[in-house]
Amino acid sequence: MILTKILFIVLIIVCALFYILYLGNFALVLFIAMLILPIIMFVTTYIAKKNITVDFALKDKTVTKNSNFSVQLVVTNRSIFPIGKAEAHIEYYNTFNEEFSSFDLYLPIQPKNSQRITFQLCSEFCGTLRVNATYLNVFDPLRIFKLKAAQNVSTELLVLPECHEITGIVHYTDRVNEESDMFSEHRPGDDPSEVFDLREYYPGDKLNRIHWKLSSKKDEFIVKDYSLPIDVPCTLFLDLKSYSSKYISLPVLDSLIEAFMSVSQFLIENERGHSVILFDTSKNMFTEHHIATSLDLGIVVKSLLSSFSSDLSCQSPDNYFIDHPNLSYASFTYIGSALNQDALHYIDEEIDSEQKNAIIVIESADNLPDINIDLSTFSIIPVASGRISASIKDIDI
After folding, report:
1. For residues 354 and 368, is the Cβ–Cβ distance under 8 A?
2. Which one of 18, 110, 203, 254 has the minimum C-beta count within 10 Å?
3. In this structure, are residues 222 and 198 in contact, taking their beta carbons and an 8 Å threshold?
């Protein structure tokens, strides 16, 4: 562009010399035209620039990792002047670590028109992916002037983690709690607030359990089994705190989320209701979510990913245990990125649970931790980043 300006200045000088050395109207007209031309170019380009808007269009704001998805840059020109060349600089990054990738798009812009430029992106890790049009520069037809038509236009997409197939044994042990509003899906009880099942009458069944209206229609006695109130039968504790550096690396964080999601989906497929305890950065506190279906799991994962940022900070599990003493579960699984001995010893000694697991996600298989912790009730499962299916086998949960 500098070379173009230099050449145009040289051309004006040549026209001036031509006007001085040669008499006649043609030399004068040519010299005046060369002086006016850049003014016209600037004015028309400036008018077009003021009437250009930039935005992004997405078919879906939720995408899956490791798969290509389309993003459209929408450029609208409301003026009557076309732009022969425009340059858009696109940056995209995961909001957790803000490691930028970028590229440039070159396009003409038609007058009185809105056009869409489609490009493909792919994210290796889950989280929130921010796409930003840092600037859109427009050039006049002679490439003398460059004007900034738009800047810092952005959009965000939620990149979902992948769910991996794991194997294991699911226990359907329930702990009775008369004050609970959760009910067993596998055993009847004596709480009349909810019916567990309807079945045929057997000798010895209580008469007040007979469903008289339904029995009259069936011409046989139908008995109501009441529900059994229980504590949360199975709990996953997701620890996002970094113990080796200021922040968890993106590959480890990605595997932490996928390990939790895979275990949770494994429980759902085996019709085992459960809960997850995790730190909510937006509320700055630990929260508990009950999960019974894949829809529940999806809501929790999306909420978790939406809260991620480069300054993600997480409190230690000790804070939760101090606020919630005397915890009791049928199954308790800790998922973290390091062998947090204080937390694991507390879970081992203070939490009442029949099955206890610790899933520890590490950077690579070459950095397997030395497991020298004396835990009498624990099963520790090291998981190499990106190798969840190969690592979580035969979990007892």
Report:
1. no
2. 203
3. yes
